[in-house]
Amino acid sequence: MPRSEPLPRTVRLLLLARVVNRLGAFSLPFLTALISTGHGASLATAGLVSAAFGLATIPSRLAGGHLADRIGRRTTIVLGLCGCAAAQLAIAASASVTWAVAGAVLLGLAFELYEPPSQAIIGESVPEQHRVRAFSLFSAALAAGGMGAGLLAALLGRWDLRWLFVTDAATCLACALLIRLALPRDRPAPPEAVQDDTAVRPLRDRALLSVLATGTAYALINQQTVITLPLALARQGLPAADAGLLFTAAAATTVLAQPLIRLPWVTRLTTPVALALAHLLLAAGLTGYALARTLPALLGSAAVWSLGDLLVMGRVYALVTDLAPPGASGRYLAVFGTSWGIAATLAPVLGTQLLSHAGTTALWSAMAVFCLLLAALHLRVTPEPARAPRRRASRERRPDKPVAAPSPRR
């Protein structure tokens, strides 16, 4: 997006609210640590609790997309954030593993409600040719909040891991209040559009399913650097709370590297090539995790990893938005977002098993090889965004078959 063309006001307000939310969004990586150290559970049990959380996020994400297109984006975001706050307070107050598991499942059921409407607001408010940069800025906004979050995690985590969940709940409520007061109310789709729901079938879209498959593989790797990292550090003899410093380094890189997205040679890359390059950077960062034994070396690896993450996030969400027919971006983004729920379910089990039986070097080396395979796969199966406008045009030329009306651009 040219510098002379600012983001729409609605998007800027959304970014500000999500920065506030992100300031406290550091509790999830320490869920397994709280279960194992705070409640004396085994490493395998802690992994299963995190897997239960991940499984619960799958219906949460799908419900978020459905509600976003039905009751409105703003209402869905507020509902999800309030639900997250209640669940996080329950985890912080849990006196046993049973109550912690119940809180983790409730958190999963609310955790993804606000993501599809947030992404749909960006996709529908920004012109198609500027979506990659808009989603990259969204990622940078979250990263900006994440810098403060990582430092708070490193501080509060050394005191008591429960305070991470209390602080996270407080920022969720602050974000919900800001969204409720600052964002204009959006109108849900009219009844006649809802009746034609069968015309929108994301799970029958082969292009979306292709992106979903590779996105799930990427999310599985990404979740290892979030959920398993504190445990891996502890196994290496470093404080688990130092993961907060690595998160801060990655977040700072995401913010500072934003100008790279606007470089001419980067913007000229096709989506498959850009995603392949991103996964090569991810592989390099994970290789650094496998070899590094000191905190400075781990910080450098986190910076390299985050460069690849930045390329992925901007490109892939713009691609999914382009693939969606009019009025269905919330549902398309929700279906794609289930990749994170699937990954959050499998990653704790996979990560803790590899960590227990093979060690940290094997864990990060396996993930690096996985990234190299994904880089090659993107060049073969990832669709081009140019496919989406043609499909939308063909739909719009069929006046006899109405489609869901898009939400008004605010």
What topology does this entry show?
Blueprint: H1 9-22, H2 31-38, H3 43-70, H4 73-93, H5 97-111, H6 115-125, H7 131-159, H8 162-182, H9 191-194, H10 206-235, H11 243-256, H12 258-261, H13 264-267, H14 271-291, H15 295-323, H16 329-357, H17 360-381, H18 387-396
Helix pairs in contact: 1-7, 1-8, 2-3, 3-4, 3-5, 3-6, 3-16, 4-5, 4-6, 4-8, 6-15, 6-16, 7-11, 7-15, 10-15, 10-16, 10-17, 11-15, 14-15, 14-17, 15-16
Question: What does this 3D model show about the protein?
Answer:
- With 410 residues, the protein is mainly α.
- Helices cover 77% and strands 0% of the residues.
- It has 18 helices and no strands.
- Helix 2 packs antiparallel against helix 3.
- The two termini are 18 Å apart.
